[in-house]
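step 3/5: co-fold with adenosine-5'-triphosphate
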Amino acid sequence: MIELDGVGRSFTVRRRTGPLRRQTRVVHAVRDLSFRVEPGEFVGYLGPNGAGKSTTIKMLTGILTPTSGRIRVAGLDPSRRRTTLARRIGVVFGQRTTLWWDLPLRSSFHLIRHLYKVDHQVFARRLTELGEVLELGPFLDTPVRQLSLGQRVRGDIAAALLHDPPVLVLDEPTIGLDVVSKAAVRDFLRDLNAERGTTVLLTTHDLGDIERLCRRVMLIDHGSLAFDGTLPALMATAPAETTIEAVVTHLYTRNAPSQAQ
Ligand SMILES: Nc1ncnc2c1ncn2[C@@H]1O[C@H](COP(=O)(O)OP(=O)(O)OP(=O)(O)O)[C@@H](O)[C@H]1O
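step 4/5: write tokens
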């Protein structure tokens, strides 16, 4: 469902170093990244700040074009077939909404139906289903800007799934949520994957999300894949540690540049 083969993405950054001087630096955000996610998998995508997670997600959704390598998502090249891909993928960014700020949630959903050309009956059925499981009823007619963070995230998840995509990509969906909202979002995602077979790629700094949801974990560091395996295999990388937090800290610091240099 998701295939990356030797994918790289670099950015050229220009910095002013004097009145007439500029320094050019190339940042390799992602380097030689290869992995496959099979249909129905639920994969956690972890990495320290600046590791290259968002850059990967932007390439998977066609927002960024890779500098090298090959990507296929649901059989499509994301940067060349962005519009077609939009009908086969759902994307949720926990830190920003894809909904219309001044419109009631319900109107945002109707606009999305129109944009994705979802059949009226399919839309009505899907909205009822999503409304029930995500408990959207009490705030469907509230403008998005008046929603609490937890309500807004549930609205964004529903919006990403109205067209019933086979792939869902989530970028920190539980960031800032209280324990109850977090549990509701996690339960929903687990059921979605188990019952509909939706393939899920989840980026998060919340290791509770990983522990509760992901059978497989990929860890990216300095733009390269540093680990790809099951949760027990991840734990086995640092046998002296007993918690996932400690194991992940161990992996992150193992690759960190020395402070002394
Ligand atoms: N548009 C850009 N121009 C220049 N550099 C960029 C750009 N986007 C990302 N980078 C750099 O690429 C590297 C990877 O960034 P990215 O946002 O993918 O990391 P991340 O793993 O998502 O981090 P975080 O967990 O902090 O969100 C960083 O060094 C970042 O500064």
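step 5/5: annotate
The mean pLDDT is 90.
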